[in-house]
Design a protein that fits this description.
There is one protein chain. This protein has a domain at 44-203 and 242-270: Vaccinia Virus protein VP39 (Rossmann fold), CATH 3.40.50. It has 10 helices and 9 strands. It has helices at residues 12-15, 53-63, 66-80, 84-92, 132-141, 179-189, 210-213, 217-227, 231-239, 244-251, and strands at residues 39-41, 44-46, 104-108, 124-129, 149-151, 166-170, 196-201, 256-260, 265-270. The longest helix is centred in the N-terminal third of the chain and has 15 residues, at 66-80. The protein is globular and about 60 Å long. Bound molecules: S-adenosylmethionine (SAM). S-adenosylmethionine is lined by residues 55, 58, 62, 108-111, 114-115, 128-131, 134, 153-155, 170-172, 175-177. S-adenosylmethionine binds at residues 55, 58, 62, 108-111, 114-115, 128-131, 134, 153-155, 170-172, 175-177.
Length: 274
């Protein structure tokens, strides 16, 4: 039994489960059941396997030089929505009514930790990302996140069942390797009835690019690469086939869809708190 009400805030190991036998680690590095020893380096739990498909492409991009070149465009997009803070609040507001003095919250795909600047300071936030360099950047920006970060895939979260009071993901979902698996994992690691949130830009946004509109999709591939996306990521963007209504109907049938960012993005919430 994990005691989450004790005075010191829980670390990743307090919340983690053994990747070998799924038993709760309950704070130990060595699994009390099978002896598997978890790797923790520089305050980050390392629970990542060989990456495949979209995960391999995403990790290469977010760990590589393209992300730094693309970042200003992402910030510009959010700024056009009325400012970065307002754009993020459109999503994070769904957590405002969470009860409890110190809710324990998980961000999947935490990146550099930009949302931590905006979240209610009473939240104790943990984060997962598949790009190791993003976790290092997150720690540099927010040293208090030491021992609250995990290098892992959304599709295989390294936590025990039902440990978080909420879980959300912003800006990475469209290109998750296995969307249904990630949604199931988000539900698994939260308490029953806890809020879960998924937000991103509309997956078909590229179809409004000039190249697509004039029947020359290669033109859109060209300018997306100019913005900083590498060729495999661009191909992934242009070939994405993600039917969100069907996916959520099957995996989170009670979820509610909110339009965000002037219709350019979506936010699905389940077990809403507002
Ligand atoms: C656009 S960034 C958004 C970062 C942060 N959530 C924010 O709002 O600023 C997307 C992040 O999701 C991570 N990511 C993408 N696919 C992932 C997956 N399958 N599992 C975990 N993280 C993933 C990327 O490495 C990247 O850091």
């Amino acid at each position: 039994m994990i005691d989450l009400e004790n005075a010191s805030p829980p670390t990743t190991l307090d919340l983690a489960r053994c990747p070998a036998c799924s038993s709760a680690l309950a704070g130990a590095r060595a699994c009390p059941r099978c002896g598997f020893v978890a790797a923790v380096n520089d305050g980050i739990l390392e629970s990542i396997g060989p990456l495949e498909g979209r995960s391999a492409i995403a990790a290469a991009f977010y760990d590589g030089p393209g992300w730094a070149r693309f970042r200003p465009w992402e910030q510009g997009f959010l700024w056009l929505q009325g400012g970065v803070r307002k754009a993020r609040r459109e999503i994070l507001r769904h957590l405002d009514a969470m009860p409890g003095e110190r809710p324990l919250v998980l961000e999947v795909g935490i990146g550099d930790g930009e949302n931590l600047r905006i979240l209610d300071p009473r939240f104790r936030v943990h984060g997962v990302d598949l790009a190791r360099t993003r976790l290092t950047a997150c720690l540099a920006n927010h040293p208090a996140q030491s021992n609250r970060l995990a290098w892992a895939e959304a599709e295989q979260l390294p936590y025990a069942d039902g440990v978080f009071d909420a879980c959300y993901t912003i800006g990475g979902f469209n290109y998750f390797r296995d969307h249904a698996a990630a949604l199931r994992e988000m539900k698994r690691v939260v308490k029953p009835e806890a809020p879960v949130i998924v937000a991103d830009e509309r997956p078909n946004l590229h179809q409004f690019g000039l190249g697509h509109l004039i029947g020359q999709p290669a033109l859109d591939a060209w300018w997306l690469e100019k913005l900083g996306l590498d060729a495999p990521f661009v191909e992934m963007v242009l070939s994405l086939d993600l039917d969100l209504p069907d996916l959520f109907c099957q995996v989170w049938p009670r979820a509610v869809r909110h339009s965000i960012w002037h219709g350019l993005g979506y936010c699905y919430t389940d077990r809403q708190t507002d």
